[in-house]
Amino acid sequence: MTRRKSKNPCKASGRKRTVGLFRDVAFLYQLAMNLLRSVATVGGFTSISRALGFVRDILIAATLGAGWIADCFFVAFKIPNFFRRLFAEGAFNAAFVPSFSEILSTQGSAAARRFAEQALAVLLAVLAIFVGLLQIFMPWLMAGLAPGFVAHPEKYDLAVVLTRITIPYLLFISLISLMGGVLNSLGRFAAVAATPILLNLSLIAALIWLAGATETPAHALAWGVSIAGVLQFLWLAVECRRAGISLRLPRPRLSPKIKNLLRLMAPAALGAGVVQVNLLIDVVIASLLPTGSLSYLFYADRLNQLPIGVVGVAVGTALLPLLSRQVMANQDSAAVNSQNRAVEFGLLLTLPAAAALMTLSGPLVGGLFERGAFGPAETRATALALTAYAAGLPAYVLIKILGPGFFARKDTRTPVRFAIIAVVVNVVLNLVLMVPLKHVGLALATAISAWLNVTMLAITLHRRGHLKIDLRLRRRLPRTVAAAAFMAAGLWGGGLALEPFLSGGEGSRVVALAILVVGGLAGFAVLARLLGSIEGRDLQALLRGEPSATD
Fold first, then answer.
1. Distance between CA 278 and CA 73 in Å, rounded?
2. Do 496 and 403 share a structural domain?
3. Is the pLDDT of residue 107 over 90?
Protein backbone atom coordinates (compact mmCIF):
# COMPACT_ATOMS: atom_id res chain seq x y z
CA MET A 1 0.00 0.00 0.00
CA THR A 2 2.82 2.32 0.91
CA ARG A 3 4.60 1.45 -2.32
CA ARG A 4 1.52 2.34 -4.35
CA LYS A 5 1.26 5.71 -2.62
CA SER A 6 4.89 6.43 -3.38
CA LYS A 7 4.24 5.85 -7.09
CA ASN A 8 1.08 7.90 -7.31
CA PRO A 9 2.80 11.27 -6.81
CA CYS A 10 5.14 10.44 -9.70
CA LYS A 11 2.23 9.50 -11.93
CA ALA A 12 0.35 12.60 -10.87
CA SER A 13 3.44 14.71 -11.49
CA GLY A 14 3.87 13.14 -14.92
CA ARG A 15 0.25 13.80 -15.77
CA LYS A 16 0.64 17.42 -14.62
CA ARG A 17 3.73 17.85 -16.77
CA THR A 18 1.91 16.34 -19.76
CA VAL A 19 -1.12 18.54 -19.20
CA GLY A 20 1.16 21.53 -18.74
CA LEU A 21 3.02 20.72 -21.96
CA PHE A 22 -0.22 20.50 -23.93
CA ARG A 23 -1.39 23.72 -22.33
CA ASP A 24 1.81 25.50 -23.36
CA VAL A 25 1.56 24.18 -26.92
CA ALA A 26 -2.08 25.23 -27.11
CA PHE A 27 -1.16 28.67 -25.75
CA LEU A 28 1.61 29.18 -28.32
CA TYR A 29 -0.69 27.96 -31.08
CA GLN A 30 -3.39 30.44 -30.04
CA LEU A 31 -0.84 33.27 -30.03
CA ALA A 32 0.32 32.28 -33.51
CA MET A 33 -3.29 32.11 -34.66
CA ASN A 34 -3.98 35.64 -33.41
CA LEU A 35 -0.85 36.91 -35.15
CA LEU A 36 -1.61 35.38 -38.55
CA ARG A 37 -5.27 36.36 -38.46
CA SER A 38 -4.19 39.95 -37.86
CA VAL A 39 -1.60 39.66 -40.63
CA ALA A 40 -4.24 38.25 -42.99
CA THR A 41 -6.57 41.17 -42.25
CA VAL A 42 -3.91 43.82 -42.78
CA GLY A 43 -2.41 42.01 -45.77
CA GLY A 44 -5.81 41.54 -47.42
CA PHE A 45 -6.73 45.22 -47.35
CA THR A 46 -3.16 46.18 -48.25
CA SER A 47 -3.41 43.89 -51.28
CA ILE A 48 -6.54 45.73 -52.40
CA SER A 49 -4.76 49.04 -51.89
CA ARG A 50 -1.72 47.87 -53.86
CA ALA A 51 -3.94 46.63 -56.68
CA LEU A 52 -5.61 50.03 -56.87
CA GLY A 53 -2.15 51.56 -56.64
CA PHE A 54 -1.16 49.71 -59.79
CA VAL A 55 -4.24 51.05 -61.55
CA ARG A 56 -3.21 54.51 -60.40
CA ASP A 57 0.39 54.06 -61.55
CA ILE A 58 -0.69 52.65 -64.92
CA LEU A 59 -2.78 55.78 -65.48
CA ILE A 60 0.09 58.03 -64.37
CA ALA A 61 2.58 56.24 -66.62
CA ALA A 62 0.27 56.47 -69.62
CA THR A 63 -0.45 60.17 -68.95
CA LEU A 64 2.88 61.55 -67.69
CA GLY A 65 5.35 58.91 -68.87
CA ALA A 66 8.86 59.49 -67.50
CA GLY A 67 9.43 63.10 -68.55
CA TRP A 68 10.27 66.21 -66.56
CA ILE A 69 6.65 66.87 -65.48
CA ALA A 70 6.50 63.33 -64.10
CA ASP A 71 9.79 63.92 -62.26
CA CYS A 72 8.32 67.06 -60.65
CA PHE A 73 5.20 65.26 -59.44
CA PHE A 74 7.18 62.34 -58.04
CA VAL A 75 9.32 64.74 -56.01
CA ALA A 76 6.18 66.47 -54.73
CA PHE A 77 4.57 63.11 -53.94
CA LYS A 78 7.71 61.66 -52.36
CA ILE A 79 7.67 64.08 -49.43
CA PRO A 80 4.18 63.26 -48.05
CA ASN A 81 4.62 59.63 -49.09
CA PHE A 82 7.86 59.55 -47.13
CA PHE A 83 6.05 60.76 -44.02
CA ARG A 84 3.20 58.33 -44.62
CA ARG A 85 5.54 55.36 -44.60
CA LEU A 86 7.67 56.78 -41.82
CA PHE A 87 4.80 57.67 -39.47
CA ALA A 88 1.99 55.28 -40.35
CA GLU A 89 4.26 52.26 -40.73
CA GLY A 90 7.20 53.25 -38.58
CA ALA A 91 8.03 55.84 -35.96
CA PHE A 92 4.65 56.70 -34.49
CA ASN A 93 3.48 53.09 -34.43
CA ALA A 94 6.76 52.02 -32.83
CA ALA A 95 6.55 54.63 -30.05
CA PHE A 96 2.82 55.09 -29.54
CA VAL A 97 1.48 51.51 -29.64
CA PRO A 98 3.61 50.09 -26.77
CA SER A 99 2.90 53.15 -24.60
CA PHE A 100 -0.83 53.15 -25.36
CA SER A 101 -1.04 49.35 -24.88
CA GLU A 102 0.71 49.56 -21.51
CA ILE A 103 -1.61 52.31 -20.24
CA LEU A 104 -4.63 50.45 -21.60
CA SER A 105 -3.69 47.20 -19.81
CA THR A 106 -2.57 48.76 -16.51
CA GLN A 107 -4.78 51.84 -16.10
CA GLY A 108 -7.82 51.15 -18.26
CA SER A 109 -9.45 52.60 -21.35
CA ALA A 110 -10.21 56.01 -19.83
CA ALA A 111 -6.55 56.70 -19.03
CA ALA A 112 -5.52 55.39 -22.45
CA ARG A 113 -8.03 57.70 -24.14
CA ARG A 114 -6.68 60.72 -22.19
CA PHE A 115 -3.14 59.82 -23.25
CA ALA A 116 -4.22 59.58 -26.89
CA GLU A 117 -5.99 62.95 -26.65
CA GLN A 118 -2.90 64.60 -25.15
CA ALA A 119 -0.77 63.14 -27.92
CA LEU A 120 -3.28 64.32 -30.52
CA ALA A 121 -3.26 67.90 -29.20
CA VAL A 122 0.54 68.17 -29.09
CA LEU A 123 0.95 66.50 -32.47
CA LEU A 124 -1.58 68.82 -34.12
CA ALA A 125 0.09 71.94 -32.70
CA VAL A 126 3.58 70.89 -33.75
CA LEU A 127 2.49 69.79 -37.21
CA ALA A 128 0.51 72.95 -37.91
CA ILE A 129 3.67 74.99 -37.32
CA PHE A 130 5.81 72.51 -39.27
CA VAL A 131 3.52 72.52 -42.31
CA GLY A 132 3.34 76.33 -42.25
CA LEU A 133 7.12 76.59 -42.25
CA LEU A 134 7.38 74.11 -45.11
CA GLN A 135 4.96 76.21 -47.16
CA ILE A 136 6.98 79.37 -46.56
CA PHE A 137 10.45 77.92 -47.12
CA MET A 138 9.65 75.39 -49.84
CA PRO A 139 11.53 77.30 -52.60
CA TRP A 140 14.71 77.04 -50.56
CA LEU A 141 14.02 73.48 -49.34
CA MET A 142 13.50 72.31 -52.92
CA ALA A 143 17.06 73.33 -53.71
CA GLY A 144 18.17 70.74 -51.15
CA LEU A 145 15.59 68.06 -51.99
CA ALA A 146 16.16 68.22 -55.75
CA PRO A 147 19.36 70.18 -56.38
CA GLY A 148 19.45 69.03 -59.99
CA PHE A 149 16.25 71.01 -60.69
CA VAL A 150 17.84 74.37 -59.86
CA ALA A 151 19.49 74.64 -63.29
CA HIS A 152 16.06 74.23 -64.97
CA PRO A 153 13.79 77.08 -63.74
CA GLU A 154 10.56 75.72 -65.25
CA LYS A 155 11.13 72.31 -63.71
CA TYR A 156 12.14 73.82 -60.38
CA ASP A 157 9.11 76.14 -60.18
CA LEU A 158 6.67 73.35 -61.01
CA ALA A 159 8.18 71.10 -58.32
CA VAL A 160 7.76 73.88 -55.73
CA VAL A 161 4.12 74.50 -56.69
CA LEU A 162 3.18 70.82 -56.67
CA THR A 163 4.90 70.20 -53.34
CA ARG A 164 3.08 73.12 -51.73
CA ILE A 165 -0.20 71.55 -52.83
CA THR A 166 0.68 68.14 -51.37
CA ILE A 167 2.24 69.38 -48.11
CA PRO A 168 -1.06 69.54 -46.10
CA TYR A 169 -1.19 65.77 -46.39
CA LEU A 170 1.62 65.67 -43.81
CA LEU A 171 -0.71 67.11 -41.19
CA PHE A 172 -3.51 64.65 -41.86
CA ILE A 173 -1.37 61.53 -42.24
CA SER A 174 0.29 62.13 -38.88
CA LEU A 175 -3.09 62.46 -37.12
CA ILE A 176 -4.22 59.38 -39.03
CA SER A 177 -1.18 57.53 -37.66
CA LEU A 178 -2.24 58.32 -34.09
CA MET A 179 -5.80 57.14 -34.60
CA GLY A 180 -4.50 54.09 -36.42
CA GLY A 181 -2.24 53.29 -33.46
CA VAL A 182 -5.24 53.46 -31.15
CA LEU A 183 -7.26 51.09 -33.33
CA ASN A 184 -4.34 48.67 -33.81
CA SER A 185 -3.80 48.54 -30.04
CA LEU A 186 -7.46 47.60 -29.64
CA GLY A 187 -7.01 44.81 -32.18
CA ARG A 188 -9.04 46.60 -34.87
CA PHE A 189 -6.69 46.23 -37.84
CA ALA A 190 -9.20 46.26 -40.69
CA ALA A 191 -10.11 49.96 -40.67
CA VAL A 192 -6.47 51.08 -40.55
CA ALA A 193 -5.41 48.64 -43.27
CA ALA A 194 -8.22 49.91 -45.52
CA THR A 195 -7.17 53.57 -45.16
CA PRO A 196 -4.60 53.63 -48.04
CA ILE A 197 -7.37 52.52 -50.38
CA LEU A 198 -8.85 56.01 -50.08
CA LEU A 199 -5.55 57.56 -51.22
CA ASN A 200 -5.44 55.49 -54.38
CA LEU A 201 -9.12 56.09 -55.15
CA SER A 202 -8.60 59.83 -54.68
CA LEU A 203 -5.63 59.92 -57.06
CA ILE A 204 -7.43 57.83 -59.67
CA ALA A 205 -10.47 60.10 -59.47
CA ALA A 206 -8.28 63.21 -59.67
CA LEU A 207 -6.52 61.94 -62.78
CA ILE A 208 -9.81 61.03 -64.48
CA TRP A 209 -11.99 64.01 -63.53
CA LEU A 210 -9.67 66.87 -62.48
CA ALA A 211 -6.87 66.59 -65.05
CA GLY A 212 -8.83 68.48 -67.70
CA ALA A 213 -9.56 71.37 -65.34
CA THR A 214 -5.99 71.97 -64.08
CA GLU A 215 -2.87 73.36 -65.71
CA THR A 216 -1.30 69.90 -66.03
CA PRO A 217 -2.34 66.37 -64.95
CA ALA A 218 0.38 66.67 -62.32
CA HIS A 219 -1.57 69.51 -60.66
CA ALA A 220 -4.66 67.31 -60.49
CA LEU A 221 -2.68 64.49 -58.89
CA ALA A 222 -1.20 66.88 -56.31
CA TRP A 223 -4.68 68.06 -55.30
CA GLY A 224 -5.78 64.43 -55.12
CA VAL A 225 -3.09 63.75 -52.49
CA SER A 226 -4.34 66.48 -50.14
CA ILE A 227 -8.00 65.56 -50.65
CA ALA A 228 -7.11 61.96 -49.73
CA GLY A 229 -5.70 63.16 -46.40
CA VAL A 230 -9.03 64.72 -45.46
CA LEU A 231 -10.95 61.58 -46.46
CA GLN A 232 -8.63 59.28 -44.53
CA PHE A 233 -8.83 61.46 -41.42
CA LEU A 234 -12.64 61.46 -41.44
CA TRP A 235 -12.71 57.69 -42.03
CA LEU A 236 -10.57 56.85 -38.99
CA ALA A 237 -12.30 59.45 -36.79
CA VAL A 238 -15.57 57.61 -37.39
CA GLU A 239 -13.90 54.24 -36.74
CA CYS A 240 -12.45 55.45 -33.43
CA ARG A 241 -15.92 56.56 -32.37
CA ARG A 242 -17.28 53.12 -33.28
CA ALA A 243 -14.52 51.53 -31.19
CA GLY A 244 -15.68 53.51 -28.17
CA ILE A 245 -12.75 55.94 -28.11
CA SER A 246 -13.92 59.27 -29.48
CA LEU A 247 -10.91 61.57 -29.25
CA ARG A 248 -11.42 65.15 -28.14
CA LEU A 249 -8.90 67.97 -28.54
CA PRO A 250 -7.62 69.31 -25.17
CA ARG A 251 -5.13 72.11 -24.72
CA PRO A 252 -1.65 70.99 -25.83
CA ARG A 253 0.47 70.09 -22.80
CA LEU A 254 3.85 68.35 -22.54
CA SER A 255 2.95 65.93 -19.77
CA PRO A 256 5.55 63.36 -18.59
CA LYS A 257 3.85 60.68 -20.70
CA ILE A 258 3.95 62.86 -23.82
CA LYS A 259 7.60 63.73 -23.23
CA ASN A 260 8.39 60.04 -22.96
CA LEU A 261 6.44 59.42 -26.17
CA LEU A 262 8.45 62.07 -28.01
CA ARG A 263 11.71 60.62 -26.70
CA LEU A 264 10.74 57.21 -28.05
CA MET A 265 9.40 58.59 -31.31
CA ALA A 266 12.37 60.72 -32.40
CA PRO A 267 14.95 57.92 -32.80
CA ALA A 268 12.30 55.47 -34.02
CA ALA A 269 11.60 57.76 -36.96
CA LEU A 270 14.98 56.89 -38.41
CA GLY A 271 15.29 53.42 -36.90
CA ALA A 272 12.02 52.11 -38.36
CA GLY A 273 12.20 54.12 -41.56
CA VAL A 274 15.74 53.57 -42.75
CA VAL A 275 14.52 52.19 -46.07
CA GLN A 276 12.44 55.32 -46.62
CA VAL A 277 15.33 57.58 -45.62
CA ASN A 278 17.49 55.81 -48.17
CA LEU A 279 14.81 56.22 -50.84
CA LEU A 280 14.60 59.94 -50.07
CA ILE A 281 18.36 60.23 -50.45
CA ASP A 282 17.95 58.48 -53.80
CA VAL A 283 15.59 61.29 -54.86
CA VAL A 284 18.11 63.97 -53.94
CA ILE A 285 20.92 62.31 -55.87
CA ALA A 286 18.70 61.17 -58.76
CA SER A 287 17.77 64.80 -59.43
CA LEU A 288 21.38 65.25 -60.53
CA LEU A 289 21.06 62.45 -63.10
CA PRO A 290 19.47 62.67 -66.58
CA THR A 291 15.77 63.52 -66.88
CA GLY A 292 13.57 60.51 -66.17
CA SER A 293 15.80 58.96 -63.50
CA LEU A 294 13.36 59.93 -60.73
CA SER A 295 10.49 58.40 -62.68
CA TYR A 296 12.36 55.15 -63.33
CA LEU A 297 13.08 54.79 -59.60
CA PHE A 298 9.47 55.63 -58.70
CA TYR A 299 7.90 53.03 -61.00
CA ALA A 300 10.43 50.37 -59.94
CA ASP A 301 9.85 51.14 -56.28
CA ARG A 302 6.10 50.83 -56.76
CA LEU A 303 6.45 47.24 -57.97
CA ASN A 304 8.93 46.46 -55.21
CA GLN A 305 6.61 47.95 -52.58
CA LEU A 306 3.83 45.43 -53.27
CA PRO A 307 5.34 42.55 -51.25
CA ILE A 308 6.76 45.02 -48.71
CA GLY A 309 3.29 46.40 -48.06
CA VAL A 310 1.40 43.12 -48.19
CA VAL A 311 3.92 41.13 -46.15
CA GLY A 312 6.34 43.43 -44.30
CA VAL A 313 3.93 46.13 -43.18
CA ALA A 314 1.20 43.59 -42.42
CA VAL A 315 3.43 41.36 -40.29
CA GLY A 316 5.15 44.29 -38.58
CA THR A 317 1.85 46.04 -37.78
CA ALA A 318 0.28 42.90 -36.33
CA LEU A 319 3.46 41.78 -34.54
CA LEU A 320 4.18 44.95 -32.53
CA PRO A 321 1.02 44.96 -30.35
CA LEU A 322 1.36 41.19 -29.81
CA LEU A 323 5.02 41.42 -28.77
CA SER A 324 4.23 44.42 -26.56
CA ARG A 325 1.62 42.42 -24.63
CA GLN A 326 3.89 39.38 -24.36
CA VAL A 327 6.86 41.42 -23.14
CA MET A 328 4.73 43.22 -20.53
CA ALA A 329 3.42 39.83 -19.33
CA ASN A 330 6.98 38.41 -19.16
CA GLN A 331 6.05 35.73 -21.71
CA ASP A 332 9.56 35.49 -23.14
CA SER A 333 9.17 32.11 -24.85
CA ALA A 334 5.94 33.22 -26.47
CA ALA A 335 7.60 36.42 -27.73
CA VAL A 336 10.50 34.43 -29.22
CA ASN A 337 8.03 32.06 -30.89
CA SER A 338 6.05 34.98 -32.36
CA GLN A 339 9.27 36.50 -33.72
CA ASN A 340 10.29 33.18 -35.33
CA ARG A 341 6.91 32.65 -36.97
CA ALA A 342 6.92 36.21 -38.29
CA VAL A 343 10.38 35.71 -39.83
CA GLU A 344 9.35 32.34 -41.29
CA PHE A 345 6.11 33.70 -42.75
CA GLY A 346 7.78 36.84 -44.09
CA LEU A 347 10.59 34.97 -45.86
CA LEU A 348 8.23 32.30 -47.19
CA LEU A 349 6.53 35.01 -49.24
CA THR A 350 9.32 37.51 -49.92
CA LEU A 351 12.07 35.15 -51.12
CA PRO A 352 10.01 33.89 -54.08
CA ALA A 353 8.72 37.43 -54.67
CA ALA A 354 12.28 38.75 -54.89
CA ALA A 355 13.31 35.93 -57.23
CA ALA A 356 10.30 36.57 -59.46
CA LEU A 357 10.80 40.35 -59.59
CA MET A 358 14.45 39.94 -60.54
CA THR A 359 13.73 37.28 -63.18
CA LEU A 360 10.67 38.96 -64.74
CA SER A 361 11.57 42.62 -64.25
CA GLY A 362 11.33 43.42 -67.97
CA PRO A 363 8.03 41.65 -68.71
CA LEU A 364 6.46 43.01 -65.51
CA VAL A 365 7.34 46.63 -66.22
CA GLY A 366 6.42 46.32 -69.89
CA GLY A 367 3.11 44.57 -69.23
CA LEU A 368 2.02 47.05 -66.56
CA PHE A 369 3.33 50.40 -67.76
CA GLU A 370 4.35 50.32 -71.43
CA ARG A 371 1.59 52.31 -73.09
CA GLY A 372 0.91 55.95 -73.94
CA ALA A 373 3.84 58.16 -72.94
CA PHE A 374 5.73 55.19 -71.45
CA GLY A 375 7.73 53.43 -74.18
CA PRO A 376 10.28 50.60 -74.55
CA ALA A 377 13.22 52.78 -73.45
CA GLU A 378 11.40 53.65 -70.21
CA THR A 379 10.62 49.96 -69.72
CA ARG A 380 14.27 48.92 -69.98
CA ALA A 381 15.49 51.65 -67.62
CA THR A 382 12.78 50.90 -65.04
CA ALA A 383 13.35 47.12 -65.23
CA LEU A 384 17.03 47.52 -64.38
CA ALA A 385 16.14 49.58 -61.30
CA LEU A 386 13.54 46.99 -60.28
CA THR A 387 16.10 44.19 -60.44
CA ALA A 388 18.42 46.11 -58.12
CA TYR A 389 15.63 47.01 -55.67
CA ALA A 390 14.34 43.42 -55.61
CA ALA A 391 17.74 42.14 -54.49
CA GLY A 392 17.05 43.81 -51.16
CA LEU A 393 13.37 42.87 -50.90
CA PRO A 394 13.75 40.26 -48.12
CA ALA A 395 15.86 42.76 -46.18
CA TYR A 396 13.24 45.51 -46.46
CA VAL A 397 10.63 43.15 -45.02
CA LEU A 398 12.91 41.77 -42.29
CA ILE A 399 13.60 45.31 -41.07
CA LYS A 400 9.87 45.68 -40.42
CA ILE A 401 9.72 42.26 -38.74
CA LEU A 402 12.81 42.63 -36.53
CA GLY A 403 12.12 46.25 -35.58
CA PRO A 404 9.20 45.37 -33.26
CA GLY A 405 11.59 43.16 -31.28
CA PHE A 406 13.23 46.41 -30.10
CA PHE A 407 10.20 48.70 -30.08
CA ALA A 408 8.08 46.32 -27.97
CA ARG A 409 10.78 46.59 -25.30
CA LYS A 410 10.84 50.40 -25.72
CA ASP A 411 14.36 50.33 -27.15
CA THR A 412 14.38 52.82 -30.00
CA ARG A 413 18.01 53.86 -29.62
CA THR A 414 19.63 50.66 -30.87
CA PRO A 415 17.76 50.60 -34.20
CA VAL A 416 18.59 54.25 -34.79
CA ARG A 417 22.30 53.62 -34.39
CA PHE A 418 22.10 50.89 -36.98
CA ALA A 419 19.95 53.09 -39.20
CA ILE A 420 22.53 55.87 -39.16
CA ILE A 421 25.24 53.41 -40.19
CA ALA A 422 23.04 52.07 -42.99
CA VAL A 423 22.20 55.57 -44.25
CA VAL A 424 25.87 56.57 -44.31
CA VAL A 425 26.73 53.41 -46.24
CA ASN A 426 23.88 54.12 -48.65
CA VAL A 427 25.08 57.66 -49.34
CA VAL A 428 28.66 56.50 -49.93
CA LEU A 429 27.52 53.73 -52.27
CA ASN A 430 25.21 56.16 -54.08
CA LEU A 431 28.10 58.47 -54.85
CA VAL A 432 30.33 55.56 -55.92
CA LEU A 433 27.77 53.72 -58.08
CA MET A 434 25.88 56.63 -59.64
CA VAL A 435 28.64 57.35 -62.13
CA PRO A 436 28.97 53.89 -63.76
CA LEU A 437 25.39 52.67 -63.17
CA LYS A 438 23.35 55.90 -63.11
CA HIS A 439 19.93 55.41 -61.43
CA VAL A 440 20.47 51.63 -61.14
CA GLY A 441 23.41 52.32 -58.82
CA LEU A 442 21.09 54.20 -56.46
CA ALA A 443 18.68 51.27 -56.27
CA LEU A 444 21.52 48.81 -55.70
CA ALA A 445 22.99 50.96 -52.93
CA THR A 446 19.60 50.96 -51.18
CA ALA A 447 19.44 47.16 -51.30
CA ILE A 448 22.96 46.70 -49.93
CA SER A 449 22.40 49.11 -47.05
CA ALA A 450 19.12 47.36 -46.16
CA TRP A 451 20.90 44.01 -45.84
CA LEU A 452 23.53 45.63 -43.62
CA ASN A 453 20.79 47.00 -41.38
CA VAL A 454 19.07 43.60 -41.11
CA THR A 455 22.35 41.91 -40.19
CA MET A 456 22.96 44.33 -37.33
CA LEU A 457 19.38 44.05 -36.03
CA ALA A 458 19.39 40.24 -36.11
CA ILE A 459 22.79 39.86 -34.42
CA THR A 460 21.81 42.24 -31.62
CA LEU A 461 18.45 40.57 -30.97
CA HIS A 462 20.18 37.18 -30.93
CA ARG A 463 22.83 38.33 -28.46
CA ARG A 464 20.11 39.65 -26.14
CA GLY A 465 18.22 36.38 -26.30
CA HIS A 466 15.24 37.91 -28.09
CA LEU A 467 15.85 36.11 -31.38
CA LYS A 468 16.52 32.40 -31.04
CA ILE A 469 16.21 30.60 -34.36
CA ASP A 470 14.23 27.48 -33.53
CA LEU A 471 14.47 24.06 -35.18
CA ARG A 472 11.47 24.66 -37.43
CA LEU A 473 12.89 27.86 -38.91
CA ARG A 474 16.37 26.35 -39.33
CA ARG A 475 14.89 23.39 -41.18
CA ARG A 476 12.46 25.27 -43.39
CA LEU A 477 14.43 28.35 -44.43
CA PRO A 478 16.99 26.55 -46.67
CA ARG A 479 14.14 24.68 -48.32
CA THR A 480 12.32 27.93 -49.02
CA VAL A 481 15.49 29.32 -50.62
CA ALA A 482 15.79 26.21 -52.80
CA ALA A 483 12.13 26.38 -53.85
CA ALA A 484 12.51 30.05 -54.79
CA ALA A 485 15.65 29.29 -56.83
CA PHE A 486 13.97 26.49 -58.76
CA MET A 487 10.94 28.70 -59.38
CA ALA A 488 13.19 31.47 -60.75
CA ALA A 489 14.83 28.99 -63.13
CA GLY A 490 11.40 27.93 -64.36
CA LEU A 491 10.34 31.54 -64.87
CA TRP A 492 13.50 32.25 -66.83
CA GLY A 493 12.81 29.32 -69.13
CA GLY A 494 9.17 30.30 -69.46
CA GLY A 495 10.17 33.86 -70.32
CA LEU A 496 12.36 32.59 -73.15
CA ALA A 497 9.56 30.39 -74.47
CA LEU A 498 7.01 33.22 -74.37
CA GLU A 499 9.37 35.90 -75.70
CA PRO A 500 7.44 36.36 -79.01
CA PHE A 501 4.28 37.11 -77.03
CA LEU A 502 6.03 39.29 -74.42
CA SER A 503 7.45 41.49 -77.20
CA GLY A 504 4.16 41.60 -79.14
CA GLY A 505 1.06 43.73 -78.74
CA GLU A 506 -0.42 44.83 -75.45
CA GLY A 507 -2.96 41.99 -75.31
CA SER A 508 -0.41 39.25 -75.92
CA ARG A 509 1.98 40.82 -73.37
CA VAL A 510 -0.66 40.81 -70.67
CA VAL A 511 -1.71 37.21 -71.37
CA ALA A 512 1.89 35.96 -71.44
CA LEU A 513 2.68 37.84 -68.24
CA ALA A 514 -0.40 36.38 -66.53
CA ILE A 515 0.72 32.87 -67.55
CA LEU A 516 4.17 33.46 -66.05
CA VAL A 517 2.82 34.95 -62.81
CA VAL A 518 0.23 32.22 -62.25
CA GLY A 519 2.73 29.53 -63.27
CA GLY A 520 5.34 30.97 -60.91
CA LEU A 521 2.91 31.04 -57.97
CA ALA A 522 1.71 27.49 -58.62
CA GLY A 523 5.25 26.27 -59.23
CA PHE A 524 6.55 27.71 -55.98
CA ALA A 525 3.63 26.26 -54.01
CA VAL A 526 4.33 22.79 -55.41
CA LEU A 527 8.09 23.09 -54.90
CA ALA A 528 7.67 24.39 -51.36
CA ARG A 529 5.40 21.46 -50.55
CA LEU A 530 7.70 18.87 -52.13
CA LEU A 531 10.85 20.26 -50.49
CA GLY A 532 9.16 20.59 -47.11
CA SER A 533 9.42 24.36 -46.64
CA ILE A 534 5.69 24.31 -45.98
CA GLU A 535 3.54 21.38 -44.86
CA GLY A 536 0.11 20.38 -46.10
CA ARG A 537 -1.47 21.49 -42.84
CA ASP A 538 0.19 24.89 -43.27
CA LEU A 539 -1.40 25.32 -46.72
CA GLN A 540 -4.82 24.37 -45.33
CA ALA A 541 -4.37 26.77 -42.43
CA LEU A 542 -3.29 29.62 -44.72
CA LEU A 543 -6.33 29.05 -46.94
CA ARG A 544 -8.54 29.29 -43.82
CA GLY A 545 -6.70 32.45 -42.68
CA GLU A 546 -5.18 30.59 -39.72
CA PRO A 547 -1.57 29.84 -38.79
CA SER A 548 0.11 26.50 -38.86
CA ALA A 549 0.70 24.77 -35.58
CA THR A 550 4.16 25.06 -34.12
CA ASP A 551 6.39 22.01 -34.44
1. 19
2. no
3. no
